[in-house]
Structure formats: C-alpha cells, structure tokens
Amino acid sequence: MATLRKQYAVARPVYSEDSFAEDHEKIYRLHKTILDHVKEYLTCDSKRAKNAVLSLLPIIGWMRIYRVREWLLGDVVSGISTGLVAIMQGLAFSLLASLPPSYGLYTAFFPMLTYFFLGSSRHISVGSFPVLSLMVGAVVTRLVPENGPPANITSFEGLTPDQQRVLVASSVTFLMGIFQLAMGVLQVGFMVVYLSDTLVSGFTTAAAVHILVSQLKFVLGLTVPGISGPLSLIYTLEKIFVQITSTNICDLVMSIVIMVVVFIVKELNDRYKAKLPVPIPIEVITTIIACGVSYGFNFEKTYDVDVVGKMVSGYESPIAPDMEVFQESAVEAFPIAIVGFAVAFSVAKVYSIKHDYTIDGNQELIAFGVSNIFGASFRSFAASTALSRTAVQESSGGKTQIAGLISAMMAMIVTVALGFLLEPLPRSVLGALVIVNLKGMLMQFREILYLWRRDKPDCVVWVGTCLGAILLGLDLGLALGLGVELLTVIFRTQFPRCSVLANIPGTELYKDRKDYLHILEPKGVKIFRMPSPIFFANIEFFRDKLVEAVGFNPLRVLRKRNKALRKIKKLLQKKDDAITERGVRDLVHRMTDEFCMNVEELDLPSDTKDLPFRLDWSAELPANVNVPRVDLHSLVLDFSAVSFLDISALKGLKMTLKSFLRVDVDVYVVSCDAYVMEKLRNCTFFDDEIVTSMFYPTLHDAMLHVLEKHKDKSRGLVLADTAL
C-alpha cells in the first residue's frame, strides 16, 4: 500500500541570478578589515573585563551555582574513589616514564591543584596518562640510558641516575606546558580538529602495543634496558626473547593471577554499573593484598622479585628546568603537548555534552599548560587525563572538580604518611595493572574491519598511523599519521566523484542518472555536478571529467572548425566558383592543407560574419573535412557543492566555459554560493562572453529556461509540466 505523502506546489517566475537581483534587494554588508578586528580585540570595558576573568577562572562560574546539599556528598565519594585509582595508576604509569614510582604520586597531586582553578571541564580527572608517560619515558631513556653513559648535559654532574631521569622528565614536562600555554594564549585550540577520531584511535592503539611490550620485562622479571627511536619495539622484543629462559616464575604467576582477577572484576563492574553505587576498586584491593603477601613472604630476597623499594616521604623542594634538556627534547615535547591536549579535550567534550555545559578549547590549553609547568617545578611528569579514571569520577557521583581536588588530597596523604607501606609492592604487580588497563585501547583493533567496509581512506589513516607509531616511535608515528590524513583529504578533494544528473519525472529533483531506473534526460542537455571545491589541484580533473561527460573536447572541436572555416575563406578569396552553402563541399574538397594557422588563432571564436551564407556545423560536411559533430546545445554545471575557487581554478574555469560557448553550447552555472559569486565579480571573471545571466539560483530554474529556449526540441517532456 502506497504511503500518503504531503504535497506542495510553488508558483513563481523562473529566475536567473540577474532577474532575482532585480526582484529582491540584497543587503551589502561592510566586512571588517584586519585593523578593525585588532582594534576590537584590544578594546577593553567593564563587561569585557568581567568576561575575561570568568573565562580565565572557570571555577567562579560553577562555584556560584554549586548545590552543597545535592552535590557535596557525591563529590566526596567520587573524590575518594577516583583518588584510589589515581594513586595506583600514578605508581604504575611512572614505570612507563622510566621513573621511580613515587613520582607518579606527584603527578596525581600537583597538576590538579592548578587545573581546579583554571580548567573548564568539571568531570575529567587530571593526572598521568599511559601514552604521555611512554612518550616522556622515550626521552628519558634516550638521554639517560640504563646501560651506558648519559647524555653530555652539564646539570647531570653529581646526580644519581634516578635524579637525572627526574630532571629530564620534569624539564620535558615544563617545555610541554610552555607549548600548551603558548597555544592557549595565541588562541589556536582549533588545531585539535586536525587530529581526527580515526587518527587518535590508531595512535592510541599503537601506544597500547608499546606500553604492553614495555611492561613485559616487569611481568617476566627480566632486566631489559630501555630502547628509544625507530624500531625500538622490535629491538625490545628481541632482547626479551633472548632472555625468556630467565623468567622469574614468581613474578609471572603473580602477574597472571592479578590480570585475571582484575579483568573479571572490571567486567563485573561494567555489567552491573547501574546497580553498584561505586565501582569495586579492584586495583587498590589487589595492590594491598600483593603488598601484604610480598612483605610477609619476603619476595624480594626469597624469590628475587624486583619491588618498588624506597618511597620518597613528603615533597621535595622545587627545581628549575634544564635548558640543555630543552634543546635535546624540543622535537619530542611538542607532539607530547598536542597529544596530551587532544586526549583531554576529547574526553572533556564527551562529558560536557552529557551534562550540558560548555568547555573552551583555548582555556583548556591554558589550564593544562599552567598545570604542567607548575607540576614540573615539583618533579611531576606529563599530565593529561585517562578515560578510565574520568569514568570513575563521573560514574561515582562527581559533579565538579571538588572531586578532583579530593582525589589529589588522597595522593598527598599517601605521599606524606603512607608511602612506606608501598615499598614491598612488586613492580610486576604494577606492570600487570598497566597491561590489564590496556584492554580498551587494544580492542580498537576491531575498528579496522569496520573502517574497511565503511570508509577505506579512513582505514588507511588508521592503519598508517598505527603501523607508523609502532615501527617508528610515537612522535614520528604521529607525524606520519597527520601526513596520511592530509593526503586522504587531498585525495578526496582532488579526485571527487563527479556525476551527470537527470530529472526524476514529475518533480524538480535531479539525481545521478546511474542510480535510478526511471529518469528524464532531455536531448541536447547535460547536467554536470562537481561535489567539491575547485582549486589549483583539481581544475584539470574537473575539465577532464567534464569532457568525458559531454563526450567531446570543445577546444579540439573549435580548432577543427576554425581550420575548416579558414579553408572556406581562402576559397572565397580565389572566387573560383559561385559559392553557395551546398557548393562548399566541392570547394573544400579541392583545397589542400598548404597553409597553417597559429594555435592562438584557432582558439578564438569562429568568425562567420563575412560568409555569404549561414554555416551550419551540425549539417553534413565533406568527407575530407573532419569536424566533430556536436549534438549538445546546453550544458548545466551544478555548483551547489563548490564552496570556494582559487585564482588558478578561476582561470581554468573561464577557459573551459569559453571553449564551450565558442562551439555554440549554452553554458549555465546553478546554485552558486554567494561567496563564490562575490569572488567571481571581484576577480573580473565576467566579460563579453561570460555574463551573469548564465548563472541561475537553482538547477530547476536553469532547466526550465533551457526547455523554453529549445521548446521545439523538447516537446512532450514531462519536465516542463512540473509544479514549480
């Protein structure tokens, strides 16, 4: 049974752009100059000053609406739950940064203190993130290798290897914070849009593989030196497999048990999260049990298990970053800053949409920049957010960053008073906790099949980024991923899917003629659609596809016609016979190609004014006059998807339109964007041949005009009887 659909009918004149402008007056807006924008930016008043303060200190905004009775209890419970997770992740992720575990607690405390005041997100948990920890660890390993002398840096003199690593990590973090703060001040938070979800997914999956391999030495109880640079993952695996027979069975068994238990409980947390008031803190429980068992059975001496060891009690005095480390690590610090912000902003955006408030990308850059600079001064390493930790903070009732502040206080309590209790904790336990938390990132491998079926260029970006980051390292892999991503964008715009449109009978709709069975395509008319901007890189592609669609090259036809016309005029000058339209064939037959014409002359319009008869190129011509027959009288270009044209494209388009006009094909451009029309006028696109009357506001307007102009040829077509 056919569905009854609403009908609509519109009665209006057929408009061209010129006639539409005559009937409807347009407002011409005065565009601001760069100087006007600068003056407006530098102008200050009380309202603007107030908005600037509120923007710089988002805490003022949400503190004014804070509901103590409704939100405080949830924030306290959430802060405690998140704090326990942050402590465990801080200890574990410090191993990725090649630092003593106690410094992971610093990262869970100091950055949060400044983000509390400056951050615009109310839900993200600021602290260590495994990918950033690994990227910092690569710099630390390069400058302070486990086997071999450290880099030639003056500040390293008199420091132990651990102190050297802490100095490198804090200096890299300080520089990362400077980059983020500078980007925030310069208002370039929009840069994160160039990191697509596909690229970030491939990059984080590669990072998860790196993290997994880096933790194998702790899980297996092996001594493997840190390796950085291209193919570091391959070399690390080689060293692990060489020593595989030296695996510490106690470490391996303990790690497997912990991974299985934590995995099962986490699955139960996900399955019953609606019924559980807070997720079961399984990482904390297993850590406490592992500490107790390790202390009771003296794993360190009995089974030669590598433990956390001496924890730093309290906080050390601030340190200044090292300029030489800045010089050595500037190339790595910038991608660390970009990745840290991109991950944090994407997570923050998810929760801001869920809870209906806005976040500011530039303010987030400032907040993380200041947080990393402040934290680095107190020996913490790169801070961002972790999705798992943020999920705990939000799902356990956290409403504001008071929960984040409480979680930081939890880390402070452990650092100041309870750190010694973690000294017997086996490092293999921390490695196991890191690995089991990689499940979400490693499961992203499933996206390959999905992307291959849905969007192959995106799949290429994912695979290219992932493989590049795995083989070349995270910094070079990110650069490679960006390159591949930009290439896919260029590919999509340089080689778009052009189409020839046809009318759906009885409607004003025009669709790709290859997609529908019942279509109407008037004889002598071609409708060509270009679904992308036209610029220097794809103007030749546009011309080639247009020639392919119409079935002839107008420039070649024009040159053939001008050659034939030149022959006819030569004969007229000789006055051999009485020249008539019918007698041209015999005259041309007697002519030879003894003359040649300049190529530029051949491209000029055919001049038939001096002929004593009307020359019809569509009529039958002599056998030796090879002029291609043109059955097309109208060409309609649908520019509805053309968002811009550059100067090179304008020149190429102008030449193309003129070549069709000179072979007696009427050209119409429809649905042209107002910005594009303005650009055409400003660039003197219009002249005696190309006029504004060729432009129409809609495709149907142009088609009705064409059918009216050639109504003898289009008699009986349903198109002319549509309601519009």
Automatic annotation (TrEMBL):
Principal localisation: membrane
Residue ranges of domain STAS in the record: 515-706
NCBIfam families with a match to the protein in the record: sulP
InterPro entries, per database record: S04_transporter_CS, SLC26A/SulP_dom, SLC26A/SulP_fam, STAS_dom, STAS_dom_sf
Subcellular location: Membrane
Gene Ontology cellular component list: membrane
Keyword list, A-Z: Membrane, Transmembrane, Transmembrane helix
Keyword Membrane: yes
Signal peptide segment: none
PROSITE patterns per UniProt: SLC26A, STAS
MF term (GO), any: secondary active sulfate transmembrane transporter activity
SUPFAM superfamilies documented for this protein: SpoIIaa-like (SSF52091)
Keyword field contains Transmembrane helix: yes
Transmembrane segments: 72-97, 103-119, 126-145, 165-186, 198-220, 240-264, 276-297, 333-353, 365-382, 402-422, 461-487
Membrane topology according to the record: Multi-pass membrane protein
Annotated protein name in UniProt: STAS domain-containing protein
Pfam family, one: STAS
Organism of derivation: Perca flavescens
PANTHER family associated with the record: SULFATE TRANSPORTER
